[in-house]
Design a protein that fits this description.
Strand content: 5-15%
Mean pLDDT: 92
Helix content: 55-70%
Strand order of the largest sheet: 1-2-3
Shape: globular
Number of strands: 3
Number of helices: 7
Oligomer: single chain
Structural class: mainly alpha
Length: about 170
């Protein structure tokens, strides 16, 4: 199994770890520390980046635009819907060609930017983007309180994990 696929599976497992341990009320709760955003809103955001990437591969051949996310309110209000989305992402990822070349499109002010990219590069971007949101979710998780402990490396970038490990070994 390619390392990139393994990293994605680990990230999705982290998503499952918190989504199976939170009530719908806690998931939707605005958290002052997070500028009144909720764990559900951050969950929706990172999940939709994967959905957008994989969905546009089918619909638009080789053009990806993260600005065209669906912003599905069900994903931010129902942890079970988020879990189902993660299952679907995992299933889809196993069927794609990570070497596929594509064009990344983004809206910058009033102009559109187009950059050459690849599916493997964009999957890595989605992973790193998700880790950032998992770190925010971890802050919210602690603020909500009365929730089980999250995995030690939850919301920590792979490079930071490796750096910390090197410090322990030296």
């Amino acid at each position: 199994m390619p390392l990139l696929h393994q990293a994605t599976l680990q990230l999705l497992a982290d998503g499952r770890a918190y989504l199976t341990s939170i009530s719908t009320t806690q998931y939707q709760e605005p958290i002052g520390l997070l500028s009144n955003s909720s764990i559900g809103q951050h969950s929706r955001h990172w999940i939709e980046f994967f959905q957008c990437l994989l969905g546009q591969l089918k619909a638009q051949a080789c053009e990806i635009c993260y600005d065209d996310r669906s912003r599905d309110l069900l994903l931010e209000s129902d942890p079970q819907a988020a879990l189902a989305a993660i299952d679907q992402i995992e299933a889809q990822l196993g069927r794609v060609d990570l070497s596929q070349q594509l064009t990344l499109k983004a809206q910058v002010t009033q102009q559109s930017l187009e950059l050459p990219s690849s599916l493997s590069r964009e999957v890595w971007y989605a992973i790193e983007h998700a880790i950032h949101h998992l770190a925010i979710i971890k802050i919210g998780w602690r603020a909500v309180g009365n929730l089980p402990e999250l995995p030690t490396d939850f919301g920590i970038a792979y490079s930071t994990r490796m750096h910390r490990q090197q410090l322990v070994e030296n």
